[in-house]
Structures are given as C-alpha cells and as structure tokens.
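User: Please predict the structure of the protein below. I'd like the answer in structure-token form so I can feed it into my own downstream comparison script.

Assistant: Understood. Taking the following sequence of 204 residues as input:
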Amino acid sequence: MFFAIVDWHRVFNEAGWLAYILAACFTVAIFIIIERGYALRNGGIIPADLADAIMEGKAATGGRHSAAGRIIDFVERHPGDTEGAKAYARLEVMKMERGVSYLDVIYTGAPLIGLIGTVSGLLQAFSIIDPETHMPDPVRFTESVGYALSATLLGLVVAVVGLVGNGYLQRRIDKHAARLDVLLERILRTRHQGGSTSDTPAAR
C-alpha cells in the first residue's frame, strides 16, 4: 500500500544526485541477496542425500561440488588431521559469508547518505531569505524540503532492503554452519571408530 501511493519517479527526481548513489546501493544489495540466496541453497551446501548418508553411515551419490562434499574430500585426503578438518570447515563457512558483509555497509550507510540530503536540503531551504518578508523564499523552501525528504526516504528504503536481506542470509549461514558442524563431528567420529572409506560418502 505504501509503495503504491508514493510517486517514486518524483521522489527520485527530487532527491537529486544522491538518488543515483542510493540506486547503486540498492542494485548491489539486490544482487548480493539473489546471488547469495542461490549459493546458499541446500543443494549447494548440504545435499539431502549426502547428509542422510553421513548420519546413517551409508554411501551416497552426488554432492561432490557442495560444501559438505568438499569437507568430506578434505577428511579423506588428510586422515587423522582433526584440527585441519575443522579449520577447513570454518573456511567453507567463510566462503558462505562472501559478500554478505557489504550488506552491513549498505544498510548502515544508506540512511546516512539520505541524512546528507536532509541536511543539505534544509540548509538550502533557509539559505535564501526574502528581503521584504525576512522569511525563506516559499518556492525555494518547498523545493529544498522536497529534496531533503526524498533523499531520506530513498535512504531508508535501501536500508530496509539491506537489513532484511542481511538477516535472511545470516540465518541461512548460521543454519548451514550448525549442520556442517554436526556432520563433521559425525564423519570424524566414524573414522575414529575405524570406519572404512567404503562406508563414507567421499570414498566414491
């Protein structure tokens, strides 16, 4: 309802040059959310068949190009290196976080950029005083206030998009990280107990 009643073309025009900066921030935020959302899909991190195989100690097909598959490959190539396996798992989690930190910058910086428009617009509004009335020029005052409010509105919209996207991606990353930790412990325990490579998914 809110987006339907706002004339976004007018808001964009009134925001001036700051609108282009905020539009660039919005574009980057949307790209990161879509790209990371696709990269963090279950099939790309922990395929269901691979997770079931690890938990049940059965062989499974597929998942070799997933994060879980790469961790299993590392364990197979470095038997007995428990600390190395855990460090490699943390590296995979860091890969999942790639680009998400930029959302922090965007949702923090966008309102500040909008605030720049607010302050500069108000300064312009009160900078020209009519010598007869000793009051700000009505036309310039209206234009300047419109510029101030438009920049603020765009900054807040970009910040909300970045904040929501960051929260969504962080929850997915935390979920995948917890699942990878459980699966890694299961893999290491199985190998410690003398499980043969034929009983693990990475033996394929």
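That's the full token string. Residues 9-203 form one domain.
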